[in-house]
UniProtKB/TrEMBL annotation:
The protein's name: Sulfur oxidation protein SoxX
Keyword Heme: yes
Organism listed in the record: Hydrogenovibrio marinus
GO MF term set: electron transfer activity; heme binding; metal ion binding
Record InterPro entries: Cyt_c-like_dom (IPR009056), Cyt_c-like_dom_sf (IPR036909), Thiosulf_SoxX (IPR030999)
Record bears the keyword Glycosyltransferase: no
Superkingdom: Bacteria
Entry-linked SUPFAM superfamilies: Cytochrome c
NCBIfam families: thiosulf_SoxX
Entry keyword set: Heme, Iron, Metal-binding, Signal
Sequence ranges assigned to domain Cytochrome c in this UniProt record: 34-124
Length: 124
């Protein structure tokens, strides 16, 4: 119960500040920017990552509400590898009765594509 309330509190706090945060600056290296841009394209693509089918993402249109809003991701997943494992579909990261498909385990996305999505999501 407390864990759920904490998630709701963090989500509410992040939503109120999400739109005040400046866009990702070009200070990062070209390789990272390329990976972030590729990850955004995959996440917003209806035929590939399709994250918007279930999640609200800043800048996305027609977002779903099945999964949590993808905000404050560094706070929620301080270890980037754990976020990768969650999207890939490692058994120890799957939530029972979750609608989220194991993208890597089922071959929906390649490891490279999942890394790109993680790089993008980690900027949110």
């Amino acid at each position: 119960m407390l864990k759920t309330k904490m998630k709701h509190l963090l989500t509410a706090a992040a939503i109120t500040t999400a739109f005040a945060v400046a866009p990702l600056s070009a200070q990062a290296g070209d390789k990272e920017m390329t990976s972030v841009e590729a990850g955004k394209k995959l996440a917003f693509s209806r035929s590939q990552g399709n994250c918007l089918a279930c999640h609200a993402i800043q800048g996305g249109e027609l977002a779903g509400n099945i999964g949590p809003a993808l905000i404050a991701m560094k706070l929620r997943y301080p270890d980037k590898q754990k976020l990768f494992d969650k999207i890939w579909g490692k058994p120890n990261t799957q939530v029972p009765n979750s609608m989220m498909p194991p993208f890597g385990q089922n071959g929906i996305l390649t490891d490279k594509q999942i890394h790109e999505i993680v790089d993008f999501i980690y900027t949110l």
